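4.2 Preliminary Data

To establish feasibility before requesting continued support, the project team ran the inverse folding procedure on a target of 377 residues. The structure was first converted into the token representation described in Section 3, and no sequence information of any kind was made available to the design step. The complete token record follows.
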């Protein structure tokens, strides 16, 4: 089944753009929604707040649909780190330990380390050489004192996609915290057994910087202290006749340190509407089919691949490779000069195609690599 023309018409990135794991170019719909929202503030036709709140609630509804939870379990966030800091400092008084793979992207390390430094849970960093984050790989680090297990849905280096549900077996009481930024928008993911899901919208969601989703289970809401909850996260937040502090809100909007990411929320909601044009299942299938084509072509071109997955359920859109015997920075520079945009990460090159990536990008990449190899022979 092909992607709908309506969906494909939303995008106009160059054919060789393979950096969706870094930045996902915006859809036309997201651009229009952001522009319309700013125009409504620039030239208000009355009180600005009511239409802004209506847009915000529409965006929250969309977040709930994406994650398969009631809308009140979701809120917008400025970025992934904000949501993870809210969670880490919400556990400040709980004691115990938090288990985190040591190879996580720093956004999922610093919140726990900073909280530990001011008396929060001890951080247990788990070395996993092959980056296959499984229940078995984390099991020895989890005990009765574990209050949180913090993982990424998709590894930013390797593209390995973990089975979130399997981690629940490690501890029925610990909060299961998921940084979903490298998977949300590329593969189907619903909150399920997770307690906290956070994802910035600037990558696979294609919603731009300053956008994101922060979802919490009812259990997490009950366990997390409102340590970083600011004025917007409390009941009666505009009732200044009642002295602070007010009680925290009973929904996910509790987790705001200040004003919410209003325009980012609009962008994220609009990005979900674009995903719904095609459906996340078809988007995922297209990305996986395309990434397999890239993998086969790269192997044929002599590339060394990182491929920790054993089946499609363990992979997403990220491919990491390198050309043995060559300076990878020079390879990346040559590809860039030929219009093929990849990322360089720790001596590896990362290609990350999306559903809108055309099949003609595969020969573009392979031809550019072959040209580079010939040029330095």
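Position-by-position output of the design step:
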């Amino acid at each position: 089944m092909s992607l709908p023309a309506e969906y494909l018409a939303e995008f106009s990135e160059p054919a060789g753009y393979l950096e969706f794991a870094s930045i996902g170019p915006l859809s036309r719909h997201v651009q229009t929604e952001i522009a319309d929202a700013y125009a409504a503030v620039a030239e208000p036709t009355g009180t600005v707040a009511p239409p802004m709140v209506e847009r915000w609630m529409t965006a929250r509804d969309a977040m709930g649909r994406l994650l398969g939870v009631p809308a009140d379990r979701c809120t917008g966030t400025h970025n992934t780190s904000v949501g993870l800091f809210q969670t880490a400092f919400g556990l400040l008084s709980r004691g115990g330990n938090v288990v985190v793979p040591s190879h996580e992207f720093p956004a999922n390390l610093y919140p726990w380390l900073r909280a530990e430094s001011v008396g929060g849970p001890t951080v247990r960093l788990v070395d996993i050489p092959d980056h296959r984050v499984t229940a078995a790989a984390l099991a020895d680090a989890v005990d009765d004192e574990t209050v949180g297990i913090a993982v990424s849905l998709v590894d930013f280096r390797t593209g390995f996609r973990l089975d979130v549900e399997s981690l629940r077996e490690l501890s029925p009481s610990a909060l299961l915290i998921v940084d979903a930024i490298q998977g949300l928008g590329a593969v189907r993911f619903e909150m399920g057994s997770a307690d906290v899901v956070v994802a910035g919208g600037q990558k696979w969601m294609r919603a731009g910087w300053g956008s994101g989703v922060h979802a919490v289970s009812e259990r997490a809401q009950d366990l997390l202290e409102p340590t970083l909850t600011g004025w917007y996260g409390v009941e009666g937040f505009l009732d200044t006749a009642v002295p602070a502090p007010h009680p925290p809100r009973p929904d996910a909007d509790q987790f705001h340190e200040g004003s919410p990411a209003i325009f980012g929320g609009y962008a994220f909601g609009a990005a979900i509407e674009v995903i719904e044009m095609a459906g996340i299942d078809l988007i995922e299938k297209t990305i996986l089919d395309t990434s397999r084509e890239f993998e086969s072509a790269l192997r044929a071109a002599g590339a060394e691949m990182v491929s920790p997955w054993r089946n499609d359920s363990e992979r997403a859109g990220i491919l990491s490779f390198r050309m043995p015997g060559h300076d990878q920075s020079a390879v990346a520079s040559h590809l860039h000069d030929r219009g093929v945009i990849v990322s360089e990460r720790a001596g590896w090159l990362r290609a990350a195609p999306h559903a809108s990536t055309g099949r003609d990008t595969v020969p573009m990449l392979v031809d550019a690599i072959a040209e580079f190899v010939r040029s330095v022979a």
